Each structure stands twice: as structure tokens, then as C-alpha cells.
Amino acid sequence: MMEITSDTRIIDLTVGQLMDLFAKAQAPATQAQPKEEKRLVYGIAGIAQIFNCSMTTANRIKASGRIDDAITQHGRIIVVDANKALQLFNNK
After folding, report:
1. Beta strands in 1-92 (DSSP E)
2. pLDDT (tens digit, 9 = 90+) per residue, 30-49?
């Protein structure tokens, strides 16, 4: 059995050796865990979209304080972390 180096031509490899090389090359890629993306929504309309409710109900949810930790507000701009809002709403 010949030793496989970076100078070995692909045509000189057997099918088994080629499959082993592919398996070794793909192994690190499968171990990397995808980072959970932060899903942001904006405004009362965004809150209504998260909870699939009306704008009036979204205003009530925001005013109740249940999801305050998920809300960042600067003046009239409201930014809500959707994942955290759902988690907080389900916990209380």
C-alpha cells in the first residue's frame, strides 16, 4: 500500500483511499455547531408578528412588562429580540 501525501495524484488512489480522504476532510465541518442567530423585529408590528396577534394585543403585551428584558427602546424606535421575547412570555 502506498503512502498518500499531498503530492499523490488522484488517479493513483483507489476508491477506498479516496473515500477515506473525503471522510477526513468533511469531519471537521460536521462538528462545527451553527451559531444561533439573533432574530430581531422592530416596533409594535414586530411584536404582533412574533405572537401572531393584533396591534392592540401587542401593545398590551409590551405594556404588561412581561417581555421588557427582550425590548430595547430609544425614543420611538423599538427593537425586540424575538427568541428572548418568546422565551420570557412562556416562562411567566
Report:
1. 40-42, 71-74, 77-81
2. 555 667 788 899 999 999 99
User: How many C-beta atoms surround the C-beta of residue 70 within 10 A?
Assistant: 21
40-91: what fold? Arc Repressor Mutant, subunit A (1.10.10)
Q: Which residues of the chain have pLDDT under 50?
A: none
Q: What is the dihedral of CA 3, 6, 7, 11, to 10 degrees?
A: 70
Q: Is 67 exposed, middle or buried (0-12, 13-18, 19+ CB in 10 A)?
A: buried
pLDDT computed for residue 33 by the predictor: 67
What is the reported pTM? Answer: 0.60
Domain ranges for the chain: 40-91
**Angle CA(47)–CA(81)–CA(51) in degrees, nearest 5?**
30
